Amino acid sequence: MRKICVVITARASYSRIRTVLLAIRQHPDLELQLVITGSALLEKYGSVVTRIESDGFKITARLYNVLEGGNLVVAVKTTALAMIELSTLFENIKPDAVITIADRFETLATAATAAYMNIPLIHIQGGEITGNIDDKVRHAITKLSDIHFVATENAGIRVIKMGENCDKVYNTGCPSIDIAFEILKNPAFNFDPFKIYGGVGSIFDYKKGYIVVMQHPVTTEYDLSKNQIECTAKAIEQLNIPAFWFWPNPDPGTDELAKGIRAFREQNESVPIHFFKNMESGNFLTLLKNSACLIGNSSVGIRECSYLGVPVVNIGSRQAGREKGNNVLDVDYNTAAIVKAITHQVAHGIYPSDLIYGNGNSGEKIATLLATIPLSSNKTMSY
Q1: Which residues pair with 243 in a beta bridge?
Q2: pTM of the predicted model as reported, rounded to 2 decimal places
Q3: Which of 50, 81, 162, 277 is the most exposed place for a label (fewest CB within 10 A)?
C-alpha cells in the first residue's frame, strides 16, 4: 500500500481536499496519513479538527506552529516553524508521497520539507493566477513539486510552460466542486445555522432572503485591510439586507481587518447581520446556494459559486487573474460601486452552472492516479 500524507494547514484546505481524503481512505491500495497544522488547529479561526474527526478520519499528527501578530514577520516565522515540525514528522512516518494544497503561505513549508527530504511531492491547484503573494507561493510550490493535479485546462498549460513535464500534469478538476455537485442535486436549506453554529449578531428570518459576506486581507496590501473592509461594511449598512458574515483567514492584515469588522458590528447593532467563524463545507455551500449574492474576495466565489450559479460581487485584487464564470462581477474598494454591484447581482438572480473547475468527480480521479502513477522525486524539466 502507498502511504499518502496529506497536510492541511487552514480551514479552507479541508473543504478543498475532503473528497480526496474520502477516496484515499476507501481505496484498497492507499493508506492515508493525515496531518493537521497551522490555523486549522485554532478555534480562533474556526478549528476544523472536530469536523474532520466527525467525518471518521484518523488524524496522524497535530503540529502547532502559528504565531500571533497578523503581520509579515509572523507569516515567515510560522512557515519556518512548520518546516521544523514537518521534517521530524516525515522522518518518523515515512510517507511514499506528500500532498500539499493550493497557495497559502504555510503550504510552502510542506513543499520545501518534502522536496529536501526526497519525498515525492504532489501539488493540488497549481498553475492558477491571483495577482498577490499567493502567486509567488503557488508557483514556487509548482517548481518544488513532482506531480501536479490542476483544476483547469489553462492552469495545466501554465504549469507545463513553467517547465514541468507534461506527463506529470493531470487536469483532475477542483475537489471542492465534488461537494458543490452534491449540493446542486439537493439544494434544500434544511438546517438552522444559528442553532448549529452559534456566532454573534442579529437573528433574522433567513428564509425571506439574505446575502453572504466573506472578505480576507490581501497580503500585498495588508496595511490597507481596515480601510478596505470599511468600504464593504458601509455598503452592507446602506443596503440593510440580512447577511451572514464569515470571519477572515489568518493572513497578514487580519488583525486590522478584524478590528474593522468589530467596530462595524458594535456601531450597527440594528443592521440584520450574523457573524460566524466557520461552517461545515456542505452546510456552507447550501447556505451559499440559497443566498441572493456572495460579497467579498474569497475563492469560493470563483470556484464553487461558478458551479452553483450563485451571483458574486468580487472586491479588489485578491482574485485578480483567476479564471471566472459569468456569475462574478468585479469591483474596486468603493462603497458606491459595491452597492451598485450587489443591487445588480441580487436583481439578476441565479446564473447557469459553469464547469470551469470540474464536474464533481475530482476526488475519485485523484485517488485512482495516486494508486497507479509512478512516484519519484527525480524531476525532469521540459525547457
Answers
A1: 211, 273
A2: 0.92
A3: 50
